[in-house]
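Thread: quick sanity check before group meeting

JM: Hey all, I'm pulling together slides for Thursday and realized we never actually wrote out the predicted structure for the chain we discussed last week. Dropping the sequence here so it's in one place. If anyone has concerns about the input, flag it before I start.
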Amino acid sequence: MSKYDHIILVVDDDWDIIQIISMYLKKEGYKVITADHGKKAIQLVIDIDPHLIILDRLLPDTDGIEVCKSIRRYSLNPIIFLTCKDEDCEKIMGLNTGGDDYITKPFNPNELVARVNAHLRRYNYNKKHPTTDFIAYDNIFINLKNHKVWVDNTYINLSAKEYKILTLLIKNPGKLFTMSEIYENVWKDISLGDNSTIMVHISNIRKKIEKDPSNPKYITTVRGQGYMFNNVPQEG
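JM (edit): ok, ran it. Output follows.
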């Protein structure tokens, strides 16, 4: 894929900045679409799936961080935050919520274009050499690199064992795991037949990822056998 096939979404409420960025990106050969508020940006991601998003940190209708979280429900493509804030905590917040890079206003347009080029080179490489660094399933998003789990754009704090059980199941949707198989995969030891440990961990996971833990949508109990992760998201 050449850069002429790439679509860049620029999200900013300052029309002058949108024009400057668009001019430099188009000169580089990219196709550019724009949005001046968060809701439009999210809809463009859903409808068009741009290859990279340049996202202003402060927008008139919502915070850029919240827009980033919403985008991550639909796309894993690179996001570069653009903002006048340069405090370390702001950078960390942006990167921890799904951003890939950060550039501070005022900025050098050539530097921004260089960063876009760099991220899209990695994007193209990853398309040709796919990895399993991310899992997106219905409203669950898992970053396998940093072991972070999001449900409905909310960070879920799982214990190490809970995380391992969830990823074991979600990587194998529709596959039944017995209690012993779960124990041996997660604890790396031979199961001695005490199933209560597994049951407690499954219960805790359900409380954290299910809207109705008593009527689970994702992790299903196969009575007398074990557990499986539903391979088709249910409605409602």
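AS: nice. Helices lie at 15-28, 38-48, 64-71, 88-96, 109-128, 160-170, 179-187, 196-209. The domain at 134-229 is CATH 1.10.10.10 (Arc Repressor Mutant, subunit A).
JM: adding both to the slides.
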